[in-house]
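job 3f2a | input accepted
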Amino acid sequence: MNPVQDPRPKSFVGLDLGQSNDPTAMAILSAAHIENGKNIPERKRKLLCPVLERIPLRTPYPLIVEYVSKVMRDVAKRSSKAHLIVDATGVGRPVVDLFVAAGLKPIAVTITGGHDVTKGDMPGAVNVPKRDLISALQVGMHSGNLKIAREIQFAEMLKRELEMFKIKVSTKGSVSLEAWRESDHDDLVLALALAAWAATYPDLRRFVSEPVTRGTISYRR
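job 3f2a | predicted structure (221 res):
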């Protein structure tokens, strides 16, 4: 007998951790995973972005962890599962470890120029090609499966970032990105791309041994 599945949507929280010259950005995606009692394949999930946020520039990482912990607690109450996806490319493992210590079990993404998604050298760490992140975002928006709530804060800013963000495909077939960490006009795009990739990647379970569920979050004040 199959267990009854939680009909509430899954949630994916993408976090682009800022450094000295750029703010931290957060995007939350709510992903329907059951329809008419049946599982929806990851790539066909309907994704809604109800929250876009920027944490003020130069906010200390411990305070960011504290705030994200509270957000994750609230998200988990409305979700069957809630995953936190953190860009660890620039800040490195020590900052990610702060989230681990808070009990958040983040998926730590290192963005690469390669062609394959691979496990990192620590639990929860994953190497993701740049083109995969952008493809997840493009496919979702072009197909209509990814919707941004118009009334939310930073929706217009995200629209401007997307307009500035361009993808070039070289003659060799590799992907180079303009404005990818080369300016302060891509943090919302990256946060959304992280969440969209996680929501639509069919083998995410390889990198998540204990996803955050309602009632299991611990956090530090």
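job 3f2a | Residues 168-172, 210-221 have pLDDT under 50 and may be disordered.
job 3f2a | closed
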